[in-house]
Amino acid sequence: MLVLLLSVLLACDSQAPTATPEGAAPAADPAAATGPAGLPPGHPPIDGSAGAAPAPADPAAAAPHGADASAAPVEAVPKAEGADARTVSEVFAQKAELAGKPVAVRGKVVKFNPNIMGANWVHLQDGSGSSTGGDHDLTLQIKDTVAVGDVVTIRGTVVTDKDFGAGYAYDVIVQDGAVVP
Description:
By secondary structure, the protein is of the alpha/beta class. It has a domain at 70-180: CATH 2.40.50.140. The protein has helices at residues 2-15, 59-62, 88-93, 95-98; strands at 85-86, 102-116, 119-125, 138-142, 151-163, 169-180. The protein has a 5-stranded mixed beta barrel.
C-alpha cells in the first residue's frame, strides 16, 4: 500500500506545473549550469586536460608548504665531522641501524617551514643521493631557525616509519634536532 501511495505522489509531482513568480525568468536547466564533468562554469578540468588554469608564476604558490625542495640539485657539501656524521644518502641507506640513534648531517637548507606542530621543519641536501632514488633530501625537525640557502650541521635522532597523519609519512626523519657549530 505504501509503495502504491509513493508511486502516485511521485507521478503527480512530476506532472505538476512549476510556478514562476510574475516577471521572473524561468529556472535554468541545472545540467546546463555546469561545466565539464558537472563542475561549476569556469572551473578548470580536474584531470589536467586542456583548458586547465595556468600554473602560478611563483612555484611556492603551487605548493602549500613552500617550493619543491627537490627542484634543483645541490652541489656537494662536505660531510659533518665526528663518529655520528652521515651524509643525507647514508642516513637513508643506514636507517634501520640508525633508528633511535643520534646523527650529525651537514647540508644546504633547501626548504624551511617554521613553527609547525611545535617544531621548525627543514629539508637538507648535501649533493649525495638522487632524486630518482629518493635519498637526496632529508627532513629534520629542529627548534632553531635557519634560512633557505644556509649550509648547516644539524644533530638529532633518527626516527623511521614516522606517520604524522594527513599524508605526512616519512621512511626516515631526524627529530629533536639542533644546529651545531
